[in-house]
Amino acid sequence: MSDPRNAAMTAYAKSIGITLHDMEDGIPVLSFEFGGDVEGRPGHLHGGATSGLLETAGYGLLRVELAKKGRNHRLKPINIAVQFLNAGKNRTTYAKARIVKLGRRNANISVEAWQDDRERPIATAIMNILMAEADS
Amino acid sequence: MAWKCFQTIDMSSELEKFDPRKAVKFLLRHGHSAKLGLQYRDHGADWCELELPWREDLVGEVDRGILASGPIISMLDMASGLSIWTKHQKFIAVATLDLRVDYQRPARKETAVVGHVECYRLSRSAAFVRGFAHDGDPQDTVATMSGVFMTIAGGTTRV
């Protein structure tokens, strides 16, 4: 199986410039640079692009954790709730996820995105993900 | 916050009613919305509908050719703003506060997804929206959503 850290890097994630910035205690920190592809109001991040980064970070961590346990599932989104806390500015944005619950069939994941100051997140999300059989 | 305030739009006369068909000519041709190739479809008094075309680089599951969920959120966010301005009949600066999307099923392979969002309530400082995404049959939704937007302090209009 390919590196689980890259499994969440979908065509969409790559197309908006999401990359693996770092691994912190085994948890992927993803990032993207500011640019036209992720811009909403001129000079500011589009909320949809921020959501895409949060979601990709959530899947990225879940992939890593499942790989550690030797589990291979097809992941299906159940839902995502995004809270926008501060305007995303013209600079690098990072996102890191935390698994709140990892069950047999579903996982609950919390994700934060920040720019200059990690203590001042620009957005947070809670995601529920269904873990289906790999070949279904 | 995900602000939506475009100076260029403000240039349109204060007297002129907000027309999503005209506004999208600017809004969907810049930045993230342009990247996704969002298209205007239709609107009513308090709703707006956009389309997200299927494209190889927007796929979430490579083997299955299905659109990723991220672009669908972006489309619903954009359609939310348009539905708010359409209901308000005027462009006002708003910021997404909370957006929730429930995914019923994956979109069909190599199929465009339509996003329909209605602004069902405008208060002095907040706008409430709900909507859905489908890939051909509005009764058979791909996703449903709800969101709350705040009007930005210092904006020219009180809501």
Report on this structure.
The complex is a heterodimer of chains A (136) and B (159). By secondary structure, chain A is an alpha+beta fold. In chain A, strands 1-2-4-5-6-3 form a 6-stranded antiparallel sheet, covered by helices on one side. In chain A, 23% of the residues lie in helices and 40% in strands. Chain B has a 7-stranded antiparallel sheet with strand order 1-6-9-8-7-3-2, covered by helices on one side. In chain B, strands 4-5 form a two-stranded antiparallel sheet. Chain B has a single domain, classed as Roll (Thiol Ester Dehydrase, Chain A). Chain B has 4 helices and 9 strands, in the order E-H-H-H-E-E-E-E-H-E-E-E-E. Chain B is 24% helix and 37% strand. In chain B, a hairpin with a 3-residue loop joins strand 2 and strand 3. Chain B has 159 residues and is an alpha+beta fold.
Mean pLDDT of chain B, rounded to whole units? 86
Q: β content of chain B, as a range?
A: 35-45%
| Terminal-residue CA separation of chain A | 18 Å
Which pair has the most extensive contact? A-B, 38 and 41 residues
Approximately how much helix is present in the residues of chain A? Answer: 10-25%
Low-confidence stretches of chain B: none
Strand content of chain A: 35-45%
Task: Identify the overall geometry of chain B.
Answer: globular
Helix count of chain B equals 4
Find the CATH superfamily of chain B: Hotdog Thioesterase
Offer a few descriptive terms.
heterodimer; A: 136 residues; globular; B: 159 residues; alpha+beta; Thiol Ester Dehydrase, Chain A; seven-stranded antiparallel β-sheet; two-stranded antiparallel sheet; 4 helices
Q: Gist?
A:
Chain A has 136 residues and is of the alpha+beta class. Chain A has helices spanning 4-7, 11-15, 47-68, and strands at 19-24, 27-32, 73-84, 93-102, 106-114, 123-133.
